Amino acid sequence: MTDAAGYLRTLARAKAQTDSGRWVEAAALWEQVVAANLINGNHWDQLAQARFESRDYAGALAAYEKVRDLGVWDQRETVFPSEVWYGIACCHARRGDADEALRALGRAVELGLRDLERASRDEHPASLHADERLRDLLGLSDVDGLGRDEGWRADLRFFAREVGRRAYRPAESRREPVAS
Q1: Which homologous superfamily does the CATH classification assign to the domain defined by 4-166?
Q2: Do 140 and 119 form a contact (C-beta atoms < 8 A)?
Q3: Residue 130: pLDDT above 50?
Q4: d(CA 61, CA 6)
């Protein structure tokens, strides 16, 4: 793909395959697109999604890491750094690396992942569902066995963490630093 017209045709075909859910074909086309434009985080995000959906978790992980480094400024929707880290966590979980999955999920939580319960419902990190570290990380530990006072304390600790984690902080950016 040496000409602009060829690049745009391949880009259109990649989008069409993605829209149709033909993930293997989409991944092959997105690979051509990113090879022609290595600095567009949006395209790397599309490649990550296509590889993930086609069960190429190692390839998706590599693409998500590029998205993490480049950032995304897609107009279809905002891809927050926490969502990129969630994708990285899901790749590690699917590859059977619980420690790296939990580390990446912890980073997603730090960066403001909104739906904490998703990780306990989602099929992709299912290998972590029985891991108590996941429940602790998400603040979903079982308080039923606790006494009334200890249960309230656990709830208040979770509430305080969430207020601090999700608070609007205009002077502080939660954006990932761009690698130099």
Answers
A1: Tetratricopeptide repeat domain (1.25.40.10)
A2: no
A3: yes
A4: 27
